[in-house]
What we know:
By secondary structure, this protein is of the alpha/beta class. It folds into 2 domains: 7-171 and 213-240, Rossmann fold (3-Layer(aba) Sandwich); 174-212 and 245-282 and 299-318, UDP-galactose 4-epimerase, domain 1, CATH 3.90.25. Helix content is 44%, strand content 16%. The protein has 11 helices and 14 strands. The chain has helices at 16-29, 57-66, 80-85, 87-108, 141-160, 186-197, 215-227, 248-258, 270-277, 286-292, 300-317, and strands at residues 7-11, 34-38, 49-51, 69-74, 111-113, 116-117, 164-165, 167-169, 171-173, 199-202, 210-214, 239-240, 244-246, 263-266. The protein has a 6-stranded parallel sheet, sandwiched between helices. Strands 6-8-12 form a 3-stranded parallel sheet. Strands 9-11-13 form a 3-stranded mixed sheet. Helix 1 (16-29) links the parallel strand 1 (7-11) and strand 2 (34-38). The radius of gyration is 19 Å and the shape is globular. It binds serine (SER). Serine binds next to loops.
Amino acid sequence: xxxxxPGVLVIGSSGQLGLELLQRxxxxxxxxxxxxxDIKKAPDFEGPFELLDVLNKEALFALVRKYxxxxxxxxxxxxxxxxxxxxxxAWELNVNGLLNVLELARETGIRVYWxxxxxxxxxxxxxxxxxxxxxxxxxxxxxxxxLAGERWCEYYHKRYGVDVRxxxxxxxxxxxxxPGGGTTDYAVHIFHEAIEKGRYASFLSxxxxxxxxxxxxxxxxxxxxMQAPSENIRIxxxxxxxxxxxxxxxxxxxxxxxxxxxxxxxxxQPLRQxxxxxxxxxxxxxxxxxxxxxxPEFSLHDMTRDMLHNLGxxxxxxx
Length: 319
Ligand code: SER
């Protein structure tokens, strides 16, 4: 028995989700107990940081021993659009990285959080109110690596009793990190350009409706899922999770309510458009609501106001 509570390891702590989850976990557990790790050096913040490539199993195991880790958040992944540029690398990182962590969990009993995505669905999936259990024929490497990962998670839980939990995030919108390599990232980029230039050219068409979520809700959902009693977690592949859905045009209108002169135009990128066209427009997350009391707080309008306010403040401080 350790005299102190076990440590928490965040893998991919410099990414969009990792950075914000790290901050929240450090509020909950204290800075010193939550170890940040990524393949590149992190910006300065308090608390331990280690360079780590999750594909390096020995280094991963050594880190877990060093900090007496009892819980891992595995957030390192290649997202949908970037994954299409390097399919084999996306598969390698997204699947083998997870397998390394699941093997570790099998041997040591640590708990695991691992995110899945709406990208696990495909063009044969019902688009509206997409059910938890449905046809899943994803067309991107990102999507089918996440689907394979979901199967592995359920397998390790059923076969070895690993306490692994997962959410299928919709597109995530936050102001603390720049837009990344996802298909939904237009909804982050648009805020940067709105504040800097007053206009934006969307790479998705005006009426492309996608499920989205504001980052504080995504963080809250993750924490709530991980704090729920194990017997409540009936789904060990990954839970559907919904915030709100909108199109680029509707997001443009919401921004214009705050910035009347904002101009939105379209410069469609065929790859990202075809990915978006294969994804759901809205998600049924009733299993999450039922099993661990999930309920989002932010609407499109709350999110838009908050994004413009916080990102505006951040940008005015950095000039
Ligand atoms: N936001 C992700 C992407 O667009 C979906 O999980 O790739």
